[in-house]
């Protein structure tokens, strides 16, 4: 059974916690991605920033994306998966936390991102259908 390491997108680019949300949005546009890991000055994962976070937590709240820092949007401990966890554990974690992207950690180092698209290519259709049901339910 494939592991996170087998199906992840390796070497993800981070947005630093002290970068502005505008800088993060520009980086997302340049990389053509909808989310970025937020990393601290210690290179540890602080959270994930999504394009939806930018809209809902910054723009819709009337905050200035030029002065709001990405680190301000990192809430609680980031949901992650170990590099050697198998696809079943990835599915359980995504379903339990209702997330579509998981940072992949090897020790304390961020080594990749597993997105729902990679999981769908690695598992049988019925299993993916179950995950989609969980992710799209209220």
CATH superfamily: CBS-domain
Total helices: the number is 6
Given helix and strand content, the structural type is alpha/beta
Q: End-to-end distance, in Å?
A: 30 Å
The string of secondary-structure elements, in order, is HEEHEEHEHEEHH
Q: What order do the strands of the largest sheet run in, or round the barrel if closed?
A: 1-7-6-5
CATH fold type = CBS-domain
Average pLDDT reading:
88
Helix content: 25-40%
Describe the main β-sheet briefly. Answer: 4 strands, mixed
Low-confidence region ranges: none
Name the CATH architecture. Answer: Roll
Please give the CATH class: Alpha Beta
Gyration radius (Cα, Å) is 15 Å
How many structural domains are formed by the residues?
1
Strand content: 15-25%
Which shape, going by the Cα principal axes? Answer: globular
What is the tally of beta strands?
7
């Amino acid at each position: 059974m494939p592991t996170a390491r087998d199906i992840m997108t390796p070497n993800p680019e981070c947005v630093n916690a002290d970068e502005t949300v505008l800088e993060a949005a520009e980086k997302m546009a340049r990389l053509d991605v909808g989310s970025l890991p937020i990393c601290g000055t210690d290179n540890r994962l602080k959270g994930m920033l999504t394009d939806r976070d930018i809209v809902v937590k910054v723009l819709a709240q009337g905050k200035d994306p030029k002065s709001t820092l990405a680190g301000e949007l990192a809430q609680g401990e980031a949901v992650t998966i170990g590099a050697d966890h198998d696809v079943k554990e990835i599915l359980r974690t995504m379903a339990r936390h209702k997330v579509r992207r998981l940072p992949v950690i090897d020790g304390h180092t961020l080594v990749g991102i597993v997105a729902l698209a990679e999981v769908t290519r690695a598992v049988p259709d019925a299993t993916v259908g179950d995950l989609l049901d969980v992710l799209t339910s209220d």
